[in-house]
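Box 3.1 A note on notation
Throughout this textbook, protein chains are presented in two layers. The first layer is the amino acid sequence; the second is a token string describing backbone geometry. Keep the layers aligned when reading.
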Amino acid sequence: MVAVPHDSGGAPTVSSGEGSEKINGQATASITSSVALPGTNAYSRPDSRLDAATETALAAVHNGVAADYTARIKPSGVTAEYPYREVDGTLLYTVQRIEPGVQGQPKTFRTVWHAVGAPRVPYRLPEVLDAIASGDTTVYVTEGEKDADALAALGFAATCCGAGGWTDAHSEHLAYAGAVVVIADKDEAGYRKAEKAAESLERAGVPVSVVEAATGKDVTDHLQAGLGVQDLVPCEPGAARRESLVSEEVFNMGVKEEAKARYAASKAGPSSWGRVDPKACLKAAAEPREPEVGQFKCTGTEPPHGVFYGGCVNEVHGESESGKTWFVLYVVAQELMAGHGVVYVDYEDDEGSVYRRLKLLGVSEEILAGDWFRYHRPNGPLTDAEKTTFNVSVAQAGTTVVFDGVTEGMALEGLTGRDERDVAAWHGKTTKDLAHAGWCVIVIDHTPHDEKRTLGSQHKKAGISGVSYLVDAVHQIRAGERGLLRLKVEKDRPASVRREAAPGKRPQWRGDLVVDCTAGALPDVSLWPAVPQDDGDDDDTNPPKFARRVYDYVAANDGCKTAEIRGRKLGKTAEVAAAQTWLVRNGHLKVETGPRNSSLHHAVKPLEVAQD
């Protein structure tokens, strides 16, 4: 027989022999250790017994491992021991409470096994089963042994699971209980464990409820305050766990001023009221701010340009169903696929629509399921507690924060877009801190039908420190059709976006988002820069110079590359490039990616125009 007692120093040891074992000098029932085999009892040795030499060698190995473990954790002292027993009273293992614990913890726990292959069972199992057998008994499930013992001392049937968490195997032992009350510790881990235990007991068909202490963290604190089990408070562990997370974070961060200070510190930036470094000011004056979030397609005549400014509040507005959210989501997709984090606050749409469009725009489910895209859909104001929750997303790496639906967002705060003070208050509460921290902030707003200005106060426009785009649906985006959204620059404080726009009256044409849903399951989407017009007109319906020549060349040389088109001397390079861009934008030519990321051109739609 292999017995596993404790020696006087508290280290688990193995000795060989017959008779009873001792734990810290106390005699216990004889324990036979074995590995459970099919058709055998978990605690009986198979018929083929090990010889004495082998048993001695195994005992020596076990003792060596146990001694090494004890030496490494260097417990200051075992302050309590909790024996776990089989139905018949057989000792399976003991949980030791060590105070103080290892690595600076106030306490840790160690399990000392007394039977090889022994299962984990509920604490105080024989006593609990005796209580169940005696009649219609309520069993209390606590998080730890100390709490279970405190209830047992008052005459209640109480148990817990110890290390490893509550499982369906634990629930099977309580299948015949009249009722089970799970007592949750009042912290995030406690609510999570209580929720798991309750779900397992429900699967076993046991009547179960979840309660928590009326005062203090656990039932021991509750009892020490002079309260009884009848004073325990019902709770819903899932909701309580979420509330605990928020409350705990609020407690850790303190009052509103401290939360703001910690947010600023996390961005490693100075106070907004502190003096700005004059060297940084001179550098900003010498280097004009360029748009760096999102990217227009490169036409070959110039490098690709950005769409929105980082460190600024940018705006996209247009009529209802003008496609403004499509435009912003296209830029979001570009950022995500470039490995940049994005926070999206949605006041008026839903997660299904947003995620569906991002998948159509080529964003993988792996990216959307991770932490790169953080989607929020609030239905209440941004309180101090909610801002703390929101800052969890902001504290992660990223470039862009989107607020979709300014009017709806202001309404949640009890503000109106027609009052300039309310507009300023909303930006001060939501967008300005983010922009100061370096984020590219994009707000999406509505314009009334046949108008260019957003709904409400002129101050909405004044609050934009970056670029403001007006989106006009030349052809709406629909399934099986080819949509075209025209982007016009209505305001550009840094002026770098307007510099690249087509000359002409304001708002100036900056580019087109083409969403071609005629090709297949996924649309072909491109963000094209504007083609400058000599007369300053932004009308893109008339073919530019050399469009006929370029189209005919592609039709005669299917699959030709950009360099081949521009190397045939069909005209001036810039004019040929403009014609090529116009033909692709208007669906006369289609571009697909070829070897080594080359662009292969195909004529797909006849061009009704005379020879150049």
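Residues 1-48, 533-538 have pLDDT under 50 and may be disordered. The longest helix spans residues 52-73.
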